[in-house]
Specification:
The structure holds 2 protein chains of 2 kinds. Chain A is mainly alpha-helical. Chain A contains 18 helices and 3 strands. Chain A is extended. Chain A starts with a helix and ends in a 5-residue tail after the last helix. Classes of the chains: A mainly alpha, B mainly alpha.
Chain lengths: ~425, ~475
């Protein structure tokens, strides 16, 4: 091998090496794109729901209430017969079986939707109005194009007759898509078309709020102590080792801790945002302390010495000068820690947040779900409607995380002083 | 009640602040001394004394009150002739009594329950009253003490700072308390578990089937049941499955992470670096439940489809799918840590290598990487510890049955999956099955602790070398 050939070979190796590096970065970026694309393509349709425009006649004989009935009277009145009578008129069905199949095209909440219309206007007796009623999950998925209709009938959830009705609805423009308010306002439900993330949103909000209230002050005070006041001794070293180790303990271990201490020993209520918040706070604490200490460390000693030189006490130099300067870094570290806590699932499963909760929690001690746990729960369900809902929940979760991270970056870039 | 008390404590503190502040005037005028602290520090001093002892007392009281009341009530119910064979039944009776007291119980109420409910009401009343009295006593005592202390005191600021420093110290102790809490809670149940199951049967058993442990009361086990239990909690399949999935994850994460770290540290222009580094780090910020969903609903079925086309039987919960996705999640941990490590190799080493005519890749392979090796190994170990502690991806995408296999297309289970599966839903405490989850947690905790310790030491040693 001549010198030139050897040199060429070495240069080829150089190029290859560079190519490997570039490919790796490219592969990593590709994964991000695939993941996000996959979630968005599955989830974006969940923000719309399918509605069937139906004429509803309020018959006094069926309802047994008068025009101008009070709120309680309407709440107690039975709207079931009114619903049945009106819904079967949506399509000229020939017999009972056909009527049953027709009724299955509407959501389980059709009765409540009709009742709500009457609550809004209590002078509807004897009148006919057009209402937008939510369609059942199968029709919803069919209308959104997520459901193949060319399968043989026995492998479909929708019968041939229901397809005929659906086509009739489409032809007469009775079926359309609308903003899915249920997805944001409702709690969990067994029916995909009625299930929403309202309860999970509130649960997550309470959990993160409690986590913030507990973790932020303690983390700031602890990092101030360790960075500014702690003497160099064994206790301080021990605390530092502990913090570093805690930051790397798997999150599920915090779930076991919460189960044993918070639920079994102190007997706080299960499945509640209160317990979730405390658990997340314990887990987030070391993860906040580390960036807090870094931002305190970044404040140059001249600031402290300047304050001490004009007669400030150690405390005044720290609290009046160092801490305000370190605050942007501290806050952005806290927000990033909270973003991690918001996406944490495993410890919440262990403290029983996987319970099926329909009601939206009104306080932190009501049983509740949280966004990531809702993702886990729905991903176990087989219906196509829940796949869509799960992806949409992930989209909500990811957008919260993106917003939080942007705030963190903004705080750091806008307010942090550079010392050089 | 507690909220009212906290509100009252706050009001007292605020009003005492102004009282303390105005008190300084009388100190300096009457005794004609020069104050070394601003008046507000006298206010702070009283506020701290007024609020901290009362709040700490309230917290401790609230933590222990339910437990104490419960044990008293269960005891009185037992004295009155209520029969319960184990803890679960006792809990049930206690819940009934509580519900009767709140008026939300609609079952049959017999005389024992009725008496106990009355006793419960009595104790709740007694405890609440004594709590209020004690808290006011504490406030009065500590306020009197602090007022006495600020009399003739011209250095209130120093005293305030001593108290605040104590507060700072206590906050930093929370980390130690958390560690102690983890160790205590894991050990407590694990010891009970190992008193039933021999630790060697656990560590070296090759069969994991905790559903067999249907025995409810661990203290009264017959010989036949014991034989049955002995073979149900073998740890080997779990550690094998965990290591196997972590190994697949590292096969994905180490090459990709390391090469991107090297490229970013050595080749990338500032512009490329500024864009690609945060995008790769997005992978670390995505919640693991999202990866789990992706692995279970997209990657798993996709692999199965591909396998079918190739004529292979691929489980839809294959170790491969879970490992691959876990590997992707770990890429940023490897890449950013190795990026940091490579950046801290001194430039002089590279310059020396270039001076003798090495190309850039030769310099990296033969000089930079050997120099950075301890740090790189440390970052890989940290990634491994993250992989074995990762829960949601394996819960959603890996299997539930414990198989001893090295075929990546079959399903295996992991330690974390089993912990979740055992503890999800209703648990019976005092059953070896529930306790086994804590034993698994303890094993996991120790394993990650050792890995992290070695990794952190490696990185630290390496940093010191070039400082």
């Amino acid at each position: 091998m001549t010198k030139e050939e050897r040199l060429k070979k070495r240069h080829r190796a150089e190029k290859r090496f560079r190519f490997y590096g570039l490919t790796s970065i490219f592969v990593a970026l590709l994964f991000v794109v695939i993941l996000v694309q996959n979630i968005f393509s599955k989830g974006s349709s969940a923000f719309k729901k399918t509605i069937i425009t139906t004429e509803v006649f309020f018959d006094q004989e069926l309802l047994e209430i008068q025009n101008g009935a009070s709120q309680e009277e309407i709440m107690e009145a039975d709207f079931y017969d009114t619903m049945i009578e009106n819904l079967i008129k949506a399509y000229p069905a020939k017999n009972r079986d056909e009527e049953d199949e027709l009724l299955k095209l509407f959501s389980g909440d059709a009765e409540i939707e009709i009742k709500k219309a009457f609550l809004n206007d209590n002078n509807l007796i004897g009148k006919t109005i057009t209402l937008d009623l939510t369609a059942s999950d199968d029709i919803d998925q069919l209308h959104k194009g997520n459901y193949p209709r060319d399968l043989p009938e026995e492998r479909r959830r929708i019968s041939d007759f229901q397809l005929v009705i659906y086509d009739y609805f489409v032809e007469n423009k009775k079926i359309s898509k609308n903003f899915n308010n249920y997805f944001f306002n409702n709690g969990d439900s067994r029916d995909p078309e009625l299930a929403g993330i309202g309860g999970a949103l509130v649960g997550s909000f309470y959990s993160i709020l409690i986590c913030l209230l507990l973790a932020f002050p303690v983390a700031v005070l602890a990092s101030i102590y360790l960075e500014e006041f702690a003497p160099k001794n064994k206790i301080t070293d021990f605390i530092e080792i502990n913090i570093n180790n805690l930051a790397a303990v798997p999150s599920i271990v915090y779930g076991l801790l919460a189960l044993q201490i918070l639920l079994a020993t102190i007997q706080l209520p299960r499945s509640t945002p209160l317990v979730a918040g405390i658990t997340l706070a314990l887990m987030t604490l070391p993860r906040i302390i580390i960036p807090c200490r870094a931002s305190l460390k970044a404040v140059p000693p001249s600031i402290r010495e300047g304050a001490l030189a004009v007669g400030a006490s150690k405390f005044q130099s720290v609290f009046h000068h160092v801490v305000p300067l370190a605050l942007p870094g501290t806050l952005s570290g806290t927000i990033i820690g909270l973003a991690q806590a918001l996406g944490e699932t495993a410890p919440l499963i262990l403290i029983g947040m996987v319970a099926f909760v329909v009601d939206i929690p009104s306080s932190p001690i009501d049983p509740s779900s949280s966004l990531p746990v809702q993702v886990y729960l729905w991903s176990e369900s087989a219906e196509r409607g829940f796949v869509e809902k799960t992806s949409a929940t992930i989209m909500m979760l990811l957008s919260f995380l993106i917003v939080m991270n942007f705030i963190a970056v903004y705080l750091r870039q806008k307010f942090e002083k550079r010392w050089n | 009640m507690n909220i009212v008390l906290i509100f009252l404590i706050t009001i007292f503190s605020v009003s005492l602040f102004f009282y303390g502040k105005s008190k300084t005037k009388t100190i300096s005028i009457k005794d004609n001394i020069k104050l070394n602290a601003l008046p507000k520090f006298y206010g702070y001093y009283i506020v701290l004394w007024c609020s901290i002892p009362a709040l700490v007392f309230l917290l401790v009281w609230s933590l222990f009150e339910p437990v104490i009341i419960k044990s008293i009530i269960i005891e009185t119910a037992a004295n009155q002739g209520a029969i319960f064979s184990d803890k679960n039944e006792a809990n049930l009776i206690y819940e009934k009594i509580k519900a009767i007291h709140l008026g939300t119980y609609f079952g049959d109420i017999d005389s024992i329950l009725k008496e106990s409910a009355l006793a419960y009401a009595k104790f709740i009343n007694l405890f609440t009253n004594s709590k209020v009295v004690l808290i006011f006593g504490i406030i009065i005592a500590s306020v009197i003490y602090s007022l006495k202390k600020i009399k003739n005191n011209n250095k209130a600021r120093d005293d305030v700072e001593v108290i605040l420093k104590g507060l700072l110290f206590v906050s930093s102790l929370i980390a130690i308390l958390t560690t102690l809490g983890i160790i205590f809670s894991l050990l407590f149940e694990s010891i009970k578990f190992f008193s039933v199951i021999n630790i060697f049967d656990y560590l070296f058993g090759t069969n994991w089937s905790p559903q067999r442990a249907f025995v409810r009361d661990a203290s009264s086990i017959t010989a036949a049941e014991f034989e049955e239990l002995k073979d149900a909690f073998g740890f080997i399949p779990l550690i094998a499955g965990t290591s196997f999935i972590a190994f697949i994850a590292m096969l994905v994460a180490v090459p990709i992470g390391l090469f991107s770290g090297i490229y970013m540290a050595e080749y990338a222009s500032i512009k490329v670096r500024r864009i690609s580094k945060p995008i790769i780090e997005i992978l670390a910020g995505i919640p693991t439940v999202v990866y789990g969903f992706f692995a279970a609903l997209t990657v798993g079925p996709f692999f199965r489809q591909v396998g079918e086309n190739l004529g292979l039987t691929v489980s839809s919960e294959s170790a491969l799918a879970a490992g691959l996705i876990m590997g992707i999640m770990i890429i940023p941990y490897v890449s950013s840590l190795s990026d940091d490590v490579i950046n801290s190799v001194p430039q002089s080493l590279r310059d020396g290598s270039y001076a003798v005519g090495a190309t850039k890749s030769e310099t990296i392979k033969q000089v930079v990487i050997p120099a950075a090796l301890p740090g790189i190994i440390g970052s890989v170990l940290l990634a491994v510890s993250r992989a074995i502690g990762e829960t949601m991806i394996v819960v959603m995408a890996a299997g539930l049955a414990a198989n001893l296999t090295i075929n990546p297309l079959e399903s295996t289970t992991t330690i974390t999956t089993q912990i979740v599966m055992i503890l999800v839903g209703d648990q019976e405490f005092d059953s070896p099955k529930t306790q086994s989850a804590f034993a698994l947690g303890l094993t996991l905790f120790i394993a990650t602790l050792i890995l992290n310790y070695i990794a952190q030491r490696a990185v630290k040693k390496y940093r010191e070398k070039y400082d």
